[in-house]
Amino acid sequence: MLADAIAAERFRLLRDRSALFWGFCFAPIVGFLLSIGGDLFLHYVVKKPMPGLGIGLLDQMIKALPGGASTFGALFLMIGAAAILAGDYRWETWRLLTPRNTRQNLLLAKLVVVGEAVFWSLALTAVLSAAAAVIGAGINGKVLAVSMFDRNLFDVLGVLAITWLEAMTLAALAACIGVLSRSTMGVVVACLGVRFVQTVLASSLRMMEQGQSSWKLLAIPVYDADLLRASLLEPTMLGQTASSAGAALAMLAVWTALLTTGAVLLFRRQDLTKE
Q: Please, which residues bridge with residue 145 across strands?
């Protein structure tokens, strides 16, 4: 039953080209165009390329991936997530879906499809950043290498997985907000606000804690994701803080599970007579 619901939601998303483009393709494409535009500006207007001997493909992918769940990236991801999670409230189509499957399966299917779309959006970000690196190297006449810092494909996959899990905490929150507000706009505004507040809190608490991890920092998903990426890429630079990586991973998983469970429980008790 759940597999049927997932297949149906995936089909609906593929038919909704507007949500697919603006939610999951627009931000990676904009990042690609801005990168190429910057290289062209430096080459033809400033006529002075950025310092550095070469460009590493894997390095550029690792650098670009965290931006997929940044405040800017989250804005567009939540537009796509809102269309999937709260679109049936807007179009009043829940009454057509609930007789076909359980409410739990219907909402979980939506979250699974959001997760798939977020993954492919992040993968597109990585691929386009590599393409931009190739084009940028050609424009500025720089040496192109696989990596300038001895990175490998597993580092890219690790950063992709961490960033995906970070984005899924927002997606699970979007499910809760969607059920409570019954509004796509409410999902976008609330999740964007939460993402911005997380960034501010994490920065402030880092200064107050003087770089040491605390339960207050570990309770913030943005900090957990940053700590995990740093632990993967530069563990020696973190010192004792690297020992909190396991707790950070657990907190991301707990936030996602708790918010998902909350959304399902709320949805199972919701009155849908008008939708």
A: 56
pLDDT in tens, 182-232: 999 999 999 999 999 999 999 998 888 776 788 889 999 999 999 999 999
**Does the predicted model carry a pTM greater than 0.70?**
yes
pLDDT over 90 at 31, yes or no: yes
Closest C-alpha to 63, from 71, 54, 55, 53: 55
Two tokens, residue 113: 């499809």
pLDDT band at 21 (very low <50, low <70, confident <90, very high): very high
Q: 86 or 142, which is more confident? A: 86
pLDDT of res. 128: 97
The residue written with tokens 């080209």 in the block is: 17
Q: What is the 3-state secondary structure (H, E, C) of the chain?
A: CHHHHHHHHHHHHHHCHHHHHHHHCHHHHHHHHHHHHHHHHHHHHHCCCCCCCEEEHHHHHHHHHHHHHCHHHHHHHHHHHHHHHCHHHHHCCHHHHCCCCCHHHHHHHHHHHHHHHHHHHHHHHHHHHHHHHHHHHHHHCCEEECCCCCCCHHHHHHHHHHHHHHHHHHHHHHHHHHHHHCCHHHHHHHHHHHHHHHHHHHHHHHHHHCCCCCHHHHCCHHHHHHHHHHHHHCHHHHHHHHHHHHHHHHHHHHHHHHHHHHHHHHHHCCCCCCC
| Alpha-carbon distances, residue 140 vs 36, 145, 213, 255 (angstroms) | 11, 14, 41, 44
